[in-house]
Amino acid sequence: MFNRRKFIKASALSAGLLAIDKNSIANVIPHEETKAENFPIVISTWDFGIAANADAWKVLSTGGRALDAVEQGVWVPEADENNQSVGYGGLPDRDGHVTLDACIMDELGNCGAVLALEHIKHPISVARKVMEKTPHVMLAGDGALQFALEQGFKKENLLTPASEKAWKEWLKTAKYAPVMNIENKLYQKAAPQKLPGNQYNHDTIGMLAIDAKGNISGACTTSGMAYKLHGRIGDSPIIGAGLYVDNEVGGATSTGVGEEVVRNVGSFLVVELMRQGYTPEAACKEAVMRIIKKKPETAKNIQVGFLAINKKGEYGAYAIQKGFSYAVCNAEKQDLLIKGKSYY
Ligand code: SD4
């Protein structure tokens, strides 16, 4: 039988993070709704959230600000060339451009975003600069790149040989048919899917943290849907869709087919439902149900997942399809929770 605990240990080892205790004590547990947790705490989407949380935890555990924690946490998948759905090494659009979407939001309601940014390894940090150094919220495309270079970011080639190879393989048929939950290796193991050339890999890191002062921040970063049309923007850099934080209430983030999240302003909806008293999981579920209700035929074949945390530190998630995983880290634990329950 597949040993989940062993898998997490293995992934922590292969990530070269042995020195960080937070990575070697990960438990994998079936998702259940949670009670209030102690601050600080950080949660993030998918299996790669484990390593990202570990770096965020370095900030949170030393009294740092949630905003710094989420920025530094998501640097991990952004820099990981083996992660083909975030940052460097991300799968390109159908024309071969790696275009990155990211946004960040702090406890004061400040936010910044970059859309379809090319050649910069850490789009989240450019998003933060947009927030802190300009009167604007979003910069896109060439303008975002120009701004990044002015801010001292280095221009790099983000298309790795592995992603270029996968793209060229995809070009042979150029069929656009994303496969769900590709990042969730545990789920793949349990329900193997055929992945020709690992072509349809597409998942985002969304991270939410509460620091020792009880302040909430969030970050969301992705290379978006693989082989998208050039110029396509997903939900991930859209404040209210891919990410939303209200320090009075909580925060939410999303992953999956961004078009459906944008149509429903998903993360804002989750936070507003929590304001009305919904638990994080109930709020995520209601946001998923909106998507399903409006487009039942579409929803059957796509994945969208929401992850949320409230001011008390309660967290929860819900996704259209089962197999959505998220990582949770605080002083007591480093867990990976897997959503078994789902609408389908
Ligand atoms: C997007 N939401 O660009 C992102 C991609 C993603 O699982 O998260 N896929 O639509």
From TrEMBL:
Protein name: Glycosylasparaginase
Site (Cleavage): 203-204
Protein source organism: Pedobacter ginsenosidimutans
Listed Pfam families: Asparaginase_2 (PF01112)
Protein residues bound to substrate: 232-235, 255-258
Top-level taxonomic group: Bacteria
InterPro entries tied to this protein: Ntn_hydrolases_N, Peptidase_T2
Gene3D superfamilies: (Glycosyl)asparaginase
Active-site residues annotated for this sequence: 204 (nucleophile)
GO molecular function: hydrolase activity, acting on carbon-nitrogen (but not peptide) bonds, in linear amides
Gene Ontology cellular-component annotations: cytoplasm
